[in-house]
Write a structure and sequence with these properties.
654 residues; nine-stranded mixed beta sheet; disordered N terminus
Amino acid sequence: MKNFITLLSFILSLFVAGSLSHGQTKQSIPHKQVWDGKKTSFHGFDQYNFPLEGIACRVVVPKKIADGKPWVWRARFFGHEPQFDIAMLNRGYHVVYCDVSGLFGNKEAVNRWNQFYNYLRFEHLFSDRAILEGMSRGGLIVYNWAAANPDKVAAIYADAPVLDFKSWPKINPTILKVYGFKNEQEAKAYKNNPVDNLTPLAKAGIPIIHVVGMADKVVPVSENTLIAEQRYQKMGGTFKVIRKEGIGHHPHSLKDPAQIVEFVTTQGQGSANLPAEKIVGRKNFILRGDFMNSRIRFERKKVGHVAFIGGSITEMNGYRPMVCDMLEKRFPQTDFTFTQAGISSTCSDTGAFRLARDVLSKGPLDMLFVEFAVNDDQDGQKTLQNALRGMEGVIAQARKHNPKVDIVMTFFANQNILDHLGKNKNPPSIAAHTKVAEHYGVSVNHLAQELSDLINAGKMDWKKYGGVHPNQYGNTMCASMIANSLLDIWSKPIAKNTQSKAHPQVSPLDPFSYVSGRFLDFDPIEIDKNWKKGIPDWPKENKGKVRSRFLGAPFIYANQAGAKLKVKFSGTAIGAYMLSGPDTAIIRCTIDGKESKEIDTLHRHSGFNYPMTVMFFNELSDSGHVLELEILKNRKGRIRDGGEALRVIHFTAN
């Protein structure tokens, strides 16, 4: 019992005293957030104005960003009565805007907001859920987008909002046009205004607060807010109305927005009975091996190379710096090198192809932390077979590089993963990664199962955890589970005769796994006059946003139908690690002059230049091959308009 208390005290000291302050002196620093566009000022805060697919957008950045990157999404009349926005900026929230004026919350407006959400969520790692702010007719887009995306909303603050355009004395003629109504009678018969579509919001438990002037004749309270209030509360939802007696449509908001701020920052933000360090247990960390190899290096040799590879959860300053802190405090005399190899949006297949460049090239590897369960599930939507081939490629290459390397594989969570686990089922990504971990004797930190168990037991919820990109609480849960097990097995002295030893060698689970995954050099690739090799002139390339990490990177690229290239390689697979932007092409790939296939390289997130790996052929004979690639003419019927461009960061082979 005494040992347990000592261990627990040590773990608590790690995450209370220094979990987020880990020094970066010997650690690769993730690329900084860069906002494009014109920089201006919003009440003393930096504001960036930029287009996204031709739509005017704004982001106001707080001076100190709050944990989890929370944000307020303002609809319409940006800057008018900004008291609430300023108060939230002072609390560390971003405030953002995407122009949907003149659309009155129709499908086009919702689609614009979907693109902007995806951009902020995937490119800048904003919190999964936004606080929506709608003023006057801004209520239409706020509520319509929330009804279409209830899982992406933390709370709604609406101010004298339009919730039923039929309540206006005369329907705005623009509404007839943008909604496609033939006449005013058809608009009057419309049954999908916000007041008619509250059920999705209530089911999602979205807390709502309105500020209204009870003498409002422009947007009558009795025909908008009061109807919504009665219906929502009847559904069991939280709906608060601040009534301003004798006040009309103006002035909006409150001179002191404290009541609004208090509501949106306390309602529906999640709850837990215990601190993150104490709420996690031991059963969902599957320990395989004793981690003696890494301990011997750290303790006897006084050196250690620890790498982290994964997607945005690894790239963000979440669980990774917490684990680094734990290792440095456990082994204070050790000269550590920490390699940060997380790249947002990338999956395990990309991980297998870039492992040599991003991790193994940095020197002998002693310990590796891996996470790709979420990205394989939601970004790549991988089948079990594809998720297995990628993860096995990562693990097998690491063990080939150093047969003694100790590995921890973590399963993070998204809503789909939690839904599966709640039904005692594994989604394909976790099922595949579990097989690899069992086969190679890799320890698994099953954070997703731990979270699912706690939610089912009523001890915490998804909001408290922080969403797909965990907040400090969720990341501390993860790091605590790792620390609990590793510090426990490292708690006893090492016997003098203890020696490190290689992990057992095993054959691949799948003969086509990417165990020899690699990037191909550009130089031998044969290109015609339509292709270029080098750094693209991005401002002129396309309208899609580009992450800062790729702005200075060389590509093989072309943007004309008929452009051809030829790649000679050896192995069983060929593909490309590329950026899929809004003008991305359909291509024809031919292998050895025999088999051809057409591949549409658009991604559902191609509104910006989205990094992904596309495999052209992956079950070839293990021999020499020739790939011929041609860009085809654009055509209708794709998931979005697309174009005739292909921008390859690296061709990939196995």
